[in-house]
Queue: 4 jobs
Job 1
Amino acid sequence: KNEKVLQDILKQQEEHMMDLIDKSGEVTVRAGPGRGVQGGAKGPPPQHLLPPQRLNGEVSQLRRSLQRAETEAKVLWEEVRGQEPKVDAARVQERILMRQEVDKLRLLLLEKMDENSQLSDKY
């Protein structure tokens, strides 16, 4: 049962992400949920493209959302695999938050290493 719930959550997140990003990689604004992916090789172009200055912010937000969803999925899959008769929701939430914090710290470390590399290349 929990595996089915997890699969449903992952499917919903994937559908939401696909709804926001069309096949050409452009972020579009939809009139409502449940719409198919617009754009692609054939058919009319997306109805409402975001201005270029907002596109980078939207892409960053989508990356963070994707990372959050992947982190939650990892923790939930671990819980399903090693499932005990009764799953402690608070413990699962704590593990998700800890994993997100680790991912955030890992990203900050990589950014700092990249900055240091760029500085050492300059001088």
Job 2
Amino acid sequence: MTSSENSDTPRKIRLPNSINSQLLRLKTCKNGSNSEPTLLGHFLIAGSLVILISGGFFCLNWYADKKAKEWLGSQEELSALPSQRLVGTAAEKTRLDEQFKEIQLRIQRHSAVMSYFYKQYYISISMTYALGLLAGICLFFISKVGWKDANKGLINVFIITSSAALFYRQLPGIFRQDTNMAANRNLYLDYISLKNEVLSYAATGGIAGRDGNNTNSFTTINPKIFIYYVDQKLAKLNQIPIDFDITRVTETPDFKKVNSVPGISGTPESLPKKE
């Protein structure tokens, strides 16, 4: 009785691991191991590449941020101007301290902008090189057999890597990463120089030579004149040099086609006026 009941009970059949792996391959590849990916296989390839590219981006961003902090040092808290040796009224000392804090704020601002564009420029160059190299390797193997007979998975890898390489290659030009980085670097150095001038004046009550050009002589300056001088320098350096090159996008044929549609490219001046 027991043996007959056991014989009627359905049993679970466990397939060997090798057979399971072959079934998984059939789901992701056409013709089994003869290697043409199915739609699921293409999605897996594309997803893996996106994850790999994203991981490379974050790793490069971390490394660039680390190097930028090493080179520039950590941003210090705003400090008051040492005024023990300053000669002047309380209002003049207060104004000099305000100018000194404003200089420090601008140093931090341009340092942050410069670091940002430096990181993006570094990432763009590195990703373009790495992805272009990978796309070139894929193209080499594709060209050996021709596009018709090439493995579709390899073509998938080539399309994704070459598209990503083109994307990163265009970023420095569109966002003018090198130009913005250089402009903010120059302003950063100018503010560092002005900060040192203010600190030297607070310690000595004067500057070296007239306008600081002749280091062989020392000139004592009235606080009112120096405050006016710092105001002029702050006004001259008061810039936010961030620029973009939209022509790299607007000059493409597809963008021109879209921009020519009525209602998109029209400006308020060109639209008909209501009577």
Job 3
Amino acid sequence: MMLYKLRLNDLNNEKPVRHYPSTDTNPCWIEPNEFTPLAKSTRRLLRDAFDERFFCRYYDDAKMAKTSYVFGMQQNLHPIYKSPRLNLNAVILLVCKQQRLGIREACDKREKVHEHIRDQLRTLLNAVANPSDAVDPPPLSPTPVYSELEAMFAPPQRRSAAVVVNQMQRCVDEELDRWKDDPMRVERLESGAPESVLSFWRLVEHRKYYFFLPRAVKVLFAVPASSCQIERDFSVSGSMVTSQRTSLSQHNIDMATFLNRNGEFVDLLECEAIK
């Protein structure tokens, strides 16, 4: 959710930016009219690049169809952030407004994105579920004896695979709908921090509140948020991403590596404040 908060506050040209030496007890803000032209341009370019790579699904129909909605599916199965409707809608409306879209059109695109997320979530749930999960085994009964006319004109009907699939789909949809309105809360540690998502769903699965959703959670939350850790583990220097395995340019990689190992050249505490 930090991405939405970043877009709503720090990358919003109409809002001030928090000054780096400010604290929670003594906050200090830089108003937009105090920015230098360079700072304004940098903020705008960062906003546009961020929208193009993350929020484009809310205003570009072509990218809406191609986007991977892993983040959205994770959010839908998160016990705390599954329904951040108010602030999330504010971010979507802000992005669409800067793309010259009206409120009604922005709301329509938001609903389309939600439909894509639900469809992909249903696809995942169907993939992790077995057809036998939703079908009770039929009771044993004696084999009937059919007459010649019955065998010729009224053969016994077999349960088709489509019936099994439809029944499993109804079970999946029922769990999704029930989870959407479920007021179940996470446990809090002594420090006040919430338990992890996997711990929450482990308990849910143990108590058998849901059958299919915990399986999807194991898949979704096993997806790494970033490949940086893997890149660092297998990179040449052992602590920096190489240019062959990232989208960063070669000179940026070299400069970042140099400054990381030679801190005496640039003291961040002595840099001038961004205005």
Job 4
Amino acid sequence: EEVEIDIEENKLKENKLKVRSRIIPTNVKKEVWARDKGKCVICEANDELHFDHDLPYSKGGASITADNVRILCARHNLEKSAKIE
């Protein structure tokens, strides 16, 4: 029995998986760190920092560019998480 595989369709699925990864790539983290000057963008704290998705990953936010990623301190990241339904 022969099995036919649509290679183009598989490539598309692989690309979609890469785009929707929750993991923030190292190059994006470096860009965000430089842009946000290693501080929380809300209070300028420089300890207990998190890389945060501005539009949450669960709501469709992406990780592959710096446009949707920012630095928040633990307090502001947890406050934000508590408000999002």
